[in-house]
Amino acid sequence: MGDGHDPLLPGQGPASGEDGESWLLSYLDVLTLLITLFVLLLTLTDPATETAPSSAPASAVTGPAHASGAQPDLTGLLPRLDGVSVSRSDAGLNLRIQDHLLFASGQADLTAPGTGVLHRLLPLLERTRGTISVEGHTDDIPIHTRRFPSNWELSSARASAVLRYLQDQGIAADRLRAIGYADTRPLRPNDSRRDRAANRRVELVVHERHAGP
Description:
By secondary structure, this protein is an alpha+beta fold.
């Protein structure tokens, strides 16, 4: 038989409440710190927040074209030249050069500055694949000389002059073709000096190769 007094059970007694609460608060503090540290580590190692190092400048493309046959983005290789623009079309990459950068008025012989312009475009052309169409265009003002009876002969001769230069600089002949369009493909109406100047141009169209099925 007992003596009428039950022994104190764990958690009972005057100090047990304070000790229990103190222990619980310490545990929560440690748990909070661990959770905070874990979240911080996840944030630092989250792949979505990492930036992959670049092995080449953003303005240039290194390495060969993709194995799929699609052209890489080569616009960053285009030098900044007034009168030269680059664009993409269904045909491929298009380099448009105003005629005064290459030829004297009514002539089809490349000027010294003209060969300099083409030389600066060579790195871009050498990095492409596919046929390069050299297309000559004129405005609608007729020409009638012994060498050029019409704009057909002038535009064709200019395209051929550019083609010959590219071939002499190492572009494979089987990639090149020259076409003269005369005034049949104007960019703008031939109703002002400014618009006629825009229509007088040579375009280098790189017909991109695509992988087969």
